[in-house]
Automatic annotation (TrEMBL):
GN (gene name): Mettl27
Protein known as: MET27 protein
Residues of the Methyltransferase type domain: 76-169
CDD domains in alphabetical order: AdoMet_MTases
Origin superkingdom: Eukaryota
Pfam families linked to this entry: Methyltransf_11 (PF08241)
Length: 243
């Protein structure tokens, strides 16, 4: 389909570009959560204008990897925001959805979707997930793994709440200002794989992830930034050798 003018942010309102820049800036956590609270009411309108495809791509990738049946599977949507990922998962037959987010404003929007059986306030990276070990069949983190957002040190905590054989679906952006974070994230993903904690099923680079909001981010000259979807499967606990 036609991509429109190549100039980054062409046709995007300046206020929208400012809101995106504000949450991606390395501001202190309380300030960042306040920004998300303030953004919650118009968040979906803004990401629609950005043609943000991560929720759709992540849900499609997870569904492809996930064995049927899905209706009974317990899923945790981490940094669930307003519920964009839940909508996509629900459409694909997942019904038992729990969500956590650090922003009360975002959770209020997520609650209004009626798609989650449980929603909890949790600031990932500073506190543990409000769930017992090995509780979920799948865990998603879509959009929050990025510079100035959720640190890559949270991976073991995501693994903790996933049952052996369960799936983890993660995304990050490949735009210039996120490349250092992406390299750190991929190093951490690789260390966990080498340690036998999980195995990689997918690392899919996607060229048209969302519209770029600045010329600096528009390195491809397409007016879009790229991103990546990762799917991992938690390894079963090895049984001690008999005898």
């Amino acid at each position: 389909r036609g991509r429109g003018p190549a100039g980054a942010g062409m046709g995007l309102p300046a206020a929208l570009r400012d809101r995106v820049a504000a949450v991606h800036r390395g501001s202190a956590l309380p300030e960042r959560l306040r920004l998300y609270d303030g953004w919650a009411a118009r968040y979906e309108q803004d990401v629609a204008a950005l043609e943000y495809r991560a929720p759709h791509l992540a849900a499609a990738s997870l569904s492809f990897a996930f064995p049927a049946p899905r209706a009974e599977a317990r899923l945790l949507d981490v940094a669930c925001g307003t519920g964009l990922v839940a909508r996509e998962l629900h459409r694909r037959g997942f019904r038992c959805l729990h969500g956590v987010d650090g922003s009360a404003g975002m959770l209020e929007q997520a609650r209004s979707t009626g798609l989650y059986q449980e929603l909890r306030l949790c600031v990932l990276g500073t506190e543990p997930l409000p769930a017992p070990a090995e509780h979920y069949d799948a865990v998603t983190v879509v959009g929050a793994l990025g510079e100035g957002q959720v640190p890559s040190t949270v991976l073991p905590e995501l693994l903790r709440v996933t049952r052996p054989g369960g799936f983890l679906c993660l995304t990050t952006r490949s735009n210039p200002s996120n490349l250092r974070y992406k390299a750190e994230l991929e190093a951490a993903l690789g260390r966990l794989e080498r340690s036998g904690a999980w195995q990689k099923l997918l690392a899919q680079e996607v060229e048209y992830w969302e519209r770029a909001t600045t010329e600096e981010e528009n390195t491809q000259g397409t007016g879009y930034i790229s991103g990546v979807v990762y799917i991992y499967q938690k390894c079963p606990v090895p049984h001690p050798e008999e005898g």
